Amino acid sequence: MRENKDEVVITSMQENRGSGHSRHSKEIWSPIIKSLPRSMAVLLFPVVVIIGALAYTSRIDPHAIWSGVSSRKSAISSKVGERRPFIGSTGKGREIPVNCSGYKHTGTCPMGMGMGEERRGGTSTCPDYFRWIDEDLRPWIGTGITEEMVERGRETANFKLVIVKGKAYLETYEKGFQTRDVFTLWGILQLLRRYPGKVPDLEIMFDCVDWPVLSSDRYNPHNPPPPLFRYCGNDHTLDIVFPDWSFWGWAEVNIKPWEILLGELKEGTKKIPWLKREPYAYWKGNPAVAETRQDLMKCNVSEKQDWNARLYAQDWGREAQEGYKKSDLASQCTHRYKVYIEGSAWSVSQKYILACDSTTLIVNPHYYDFFTRGLIPMHHYWPIKEDDKCRSIKFAVDWGNSHKERAQEIGKSASNFIQEELKMDYVYDYMFHLLSSYAKLFRYKPSISANATELCVESMVCGAEGFEKKFMMESLVKGPAITSPCTMPAPFDPPSLYAHLQRKQSSIQQVESWEKSYWENQNITS
Ligand SMILES: *[C@@H]1O[C@H](CO)[C@@H](O)[C@H](O)[C@H]1NC(C)=O
Ligand SMILES: *[C@@H]1O[C@H](CO)[C@@H](O)[C@H](O)[C@H]1NC(C)=O
Ligand SMILES: *[C@@H]1O[C@H](CO)[C@@H](O)[C@H](O)[C@H]1NC(C)=O
């Protein structure tokens, strides 16, 4: 595997395993966005309705203890004050202990976590982007999911995770890049702690490599793809998207767990108000990972030209030596405009950029992750043309500096979206609803294979060291949530999906037409 470094981020480059992009015009599973009418038929299949509010039983363990991690609490609270960064919306609930001395003694995972608490009713509706869960699972609506389908995913999967009776069992096929597999598994274990006994039995094949591989033209409703989980997708593939590792931390580049970082970013945005920020478009990252980024570098300010862009290359080697002082994300909210551009695929940096209160300029993206399909152009961000970046950025910044109210609003909507709709509670609820809906499609009973080993918080954290251990402890879910998961919004029906995509498309076209007349006028006046 070849790996390259990304901006705040390292994104892996890898050989594109097994996904030929041949385009045949047989009965294909066409990407919904590119050819909606053809997908209409598929969309009319019955839809799995997810019951968000489940009946929960109560069993509070008064002897629950919290061992081995007592130092963690004070270490964190000194940083983020009195916030309780671990289980978001929980009040005082039962805590599930982490018993490393017990684990080291017996070498086995603890017996179980009991059941969840009594839930309070009247929960909120999940953010709109949860509607994509149904779209991602649509390929299996007619057929269900069989063991044969799951096993086919093994070809590229890094691991298979089996959940039976609320416990996790892992079979590793190929170690993932850095600790992305480790923190993904850690995240799923936290979900099991948050909703003990509520995540149904299932098996997932997970591919930790950047690029989606299940090309939609190879499958159709009678021949569905293997269900394969990964961090991102695009309009030509059928991989199922799942939150990436960075929500629990990225040990290699010192990116903290999202819960903590989100608080720091909120503070960071307050330092310089939008109007006082540099009136330019800022980007910092590694241009080497993608041609489109090298192309972006041509827009940097020089003695001869100023496209309103201030672009910087990230030097990860030096950053690591100097203790990541210059890559502190919360202190990168210094410009009115921030550029987001993909690396080798989606980039985990998008949430950090959108959180800044700056107006985000998004260079037309090709990949989505689980939440980015909820972003609306002109509301959350300003679209930038991919094939004419410099002029597009120049116009965006000029427009914003002469429509300051509107430009600030776009920045504010994005950071509100990130702070409210992408808080950790919703990341867990997304995982919960996705896995629950997925499990409902199962046509077989998942079982623990001979090669699988039990995975528990103790087996992961007790032997960990350094940033890995630190981030695990900081992102540990202390115990069951005392509120129910959010309630799923109504799924898209063909008209509402069509309207949604139309709205996005017409906003982008609007910007393009303004941009066109802006440059036509420049040519006349110059
Ligand atoms: C940890 O586990 C060991 C062995 O199972 C047990 O004897 C001990 O009481 C446990 N410690 C706590 C604090 O629960
Ligand atoms: C862009 O220009 C600025 C100002 O001249 C410079 O400091 C920076 O290094 C340039 N960025 C790149 C990636 O060359
Ligand atoms: C378990 O692993 C062994 C050795 O890698 C392999 O030969 C065997 O097929 C595996 N069994 C299953 C059920 O996957």
Automatic annotation (TrEMBL):
Keywords: Membrane, Transmembrane, Transmembrane helix. The chain crosses the membrane at residues 40-57. The keyword Transmembrane helix applies. Residues 198-445 form the Glycosyl transferase CAP10 domain. InterPro entries: CAP10 (IPR006598), O-Glucosyltr/Glycosyltrsf_90 (IPR051091). It holds the Pfam family Glyco_transf_90. This is Glycosyl transferase CAP10 domain-containing protein. It comes from Psophocarpus tetragonolobus (Winged bean).
